Amino acid sequence: MQGHDQAFVRTQLELPQPAPRSTSGIGHWLRTNLFATPLDSVLTLLGLLLIGYILPPLIGWAFIDAVWSGPDRSVCATVVQGGSQPEGWSGACWAFVNAKFEQFMYGRYSFTQRWRVNIVAILFVLLFVPLIIPRVPYKGLNAILFFFVLPVFAYFMLVGGWFGLQYVPTQLWGGLLVTMVISFVGIAVSLPLGILLALGRRSELPVVKMLSVIFIEMVRGVPLVTVLFMASVMLPLFLPAGMTFDRLLRALVGVSLFASAYMAEVVRGGLQAIPKGQYEGADSLGLGYWQKMVLIVLPQALKLVIPGIVNTFIGLFKDTSLVYIIGMFDLLGIVRQNFSDTNWSSPQTPASGLLFAGFVFWIFCFGMSRYSIWMERRLDTGYRR
Q1: Calpha distance 379→112 (Å, rounded)
Q2: Cβ atoms 326, 227 nearer than 8 A
Q3: Could you tell me the residue ranges of all domains in the chain?
Q4: CATH class for the region spanning 94-109+168-378
């Protein structure tokens, strides 16, 4: 029996197989993301039907039947005959936004002095863009100019009263100017302060740990409106007679402290995710506490919690609208304030103004979100399960 020792040899060639489905292109993307399973196909069709139901009237209201320019409310109060909207409806009143645009950006900032705001905005962009692009050199110098030199320069430029510049009180500030100032200061202060609070909460020193825990839990236990109210109304009661703080400064302090408490918990989560071996390895090298944290632990921890950090920044940026409660008018506040202008009172004015404010907030928040996703991919170590 030699059959067990012999190998089978094919006497005919294998028949040709059909070509595989494309693994690239629009067809592959549709099959993978929208029609992978019968349930996915049903949900995709329902989503398309919902979009088809909502999108045409929205486009008609916002663009086709919209009023883009005009002197007063009369252009927005006129019902469009034969338009895409039902009878008795008119389109968006972008003429209101166009007429109030500068007020939405600057508030009641002196018209002849708005060039100072423009200079600060240009310098902000020129320093911020190279800072977030990794390939641009001189990051240390760029960071010093952006976080230390620019705020001082912006203070003297925006407030004035020195070097021949007209004094512009912060009570006249408003619109996007206030939103950007509060959010920038809040972000710049909350991250380092939140890191210190997170390290303090994990400290082995009982007093430091207790103080950190008390501050974090007290601030996180009350809404931001309460913190702003305390900073605006209650803080002057604890100051010596005759001493007071600017209302904008009180808002900056309240927002920064509130955001730092939430930031501390985000950073603490990253610190707890670092394996114990990293701490032990740093100790075996003879590194001190701050060397271990700055060189070994914090770079890894902050990379892990980038989504949480950016989420806190986005929440802070949107929460700036709450300064309306203490008599300051950010972008949303100044838009709402202009609803009372009888020259522009119409049924479409509130919706148009709120949609404009929401679109501006969305642009900034979406930009921060996409940049954080890009940074996550860039800092990814390449580990895959």
Answers
A1: 46
A2: no
A3: 31-66, 94-109+168-378
A4: mainly alpha
Buried b (16+ CB within 10 A) or exposed e, 288-325: eeeebbeebbbebbbebbbebbbbbbbebbbbbbbbbe
Angle subtended at Cα 128 by Cα 124 and Cα 360, rounded to the nearest 5 degrees: 70
Contact (CB, 8 A) for 219 and 261: yes
Q: For 173, phi and psi rounded to 5 degrees?
A: -75, 155
- Percent of the chain exceeding pLDDT 90 equals 55
Distances (CA, A) of 165 to 152, 157, 246: 15, 8, 19
Side-chain-facing half-sphere of 27: CA atoms under 13 Å: 3
> What contacts 128, CB < 8 A, 6 or more positions away?
146
Which tens digit of pLDDT belongs to each residue from 2-16?
A: 555 556 677 778 777
Long-range contacts, stretch 367-370, CB < 8 angstroms, 24+ apart: 368/310, 368/313, 368/314, 368/317, 369/310, 369/314
Which of 259, 373, 248 has its CA nearest to residue 315? 259
Got the DSSP string for 316-382?
HHHHGGGGGGGT--BHHHHHHHGGG-GGG--TTHHHHHHHHHHHHHHHHHHHHHHHHHHHHHHT---
| Structure confidence at residue 5 (pLDDT) | 57
- Please report, for residues 207, 268, 289, the alpha-carbon distance to residue 203 in angstroms, rounded to integers and kept in the order given: 9, 11, 11
What Rg value do the Cα atoms of the chain yield, rounded? Answer: 29
> Mean of the pLDDT values across residues 230-245?
75
CA–CA gap between residue 90 and residue 87 (Å, rounded): 9
- Other CB atoms closer than 10 Å to residue 259's CB: what's the count? 26
Cβ neighbours of residue 281 under 8 Å, at least 6 residues apart?
Answer: 296
Residue 64 reports pLDDT greater than 90: no
Predicted pLDDT of residue 81: 52
Q: Given a cut of 70, is residue 189 above it in pLDDT?
A: yes
In terms of average pLDDT, the best of 178-182, 223-227, 380-384 is: 178-182
- The confidence score (pLDDT) of residue 155 equals 93
pLDDT value at 281 more than 70: yes
What's the whole-number mean pLDDT along residues 330-357? Answer: 90
